[in-house]
Amino acid sequence: QVQLVESGGGLVQAGGSLRLSCAASGTFFGVNTMGWYRQAPGKQRELVAAITSGGSTNYADSVKGRFTISRDNAKNTVYLQMNSLKPEDTAVYYCNAVIAGLGRNYNYWGQGTQVTVSS
Asked: What is the pLDDT of residue 102?
């Protein structure tokens, strides 16, 4: 079994910062792309940022210059540093990981962590 355990959400004022963490645990051959998605009430889940095992990154236009994704491959952990937070960043943030299994890749999701930005 593979688990993604997230931490770091909370309530912050506009302009503040938060750092999310997500650690993959269990039995697997490796962790490929890891990323963060978010879903606000009444909206579809959207990609926030993703990072490959080699360190290539991809960001949503709305967070470029404010959010930074990084990972520690030795710990199978991905981080999302969120700066200059805005009320529109309020959402449940979900960690995603593509896990290498026996002969194929598997897509896993974390349980979600709430980020609330007050104005």
From this structure: 86
Stretch 95-114: mean pLDDT:
94
User: Which residues make Cβ contacts (< 8 Å) with residue 33, sequence separation at least 6?
Assistant: 50, 51, 52, 53, 97, 98
Q: How far apart are CA 116 and CA 28, in angstroms?
A: 33
**Per-residue b or e along 81-95, where b marks 16 or more CB atoms closer than 10 Å to that residue's CB:** ebeebeeebbbbbbb
Question: Quick count: other Cβ atoms within 10 Å of Cβ 115?
Answer: 22
The answer, yes or no, to whether residue 53 has pLDDT greater than 90, is yes
Model confidence at 28: pLDDT above 90: no
Q: Enumerate residues 6+ apart whose C-beta is below 8 A from 79.
A: 19, 20, 21, 22, 69, 70, 71, 72
Residue 73 in this model has a pLDDT that exceeds 90: yes
CA 22 to chain centre: 7
C-alpha 36, offset from chain centre: 3
Closest residue by Cα to residue 19 from 78, 82, 104, 112 = 82
Cα separation of 104 and 33, whole Å? 14
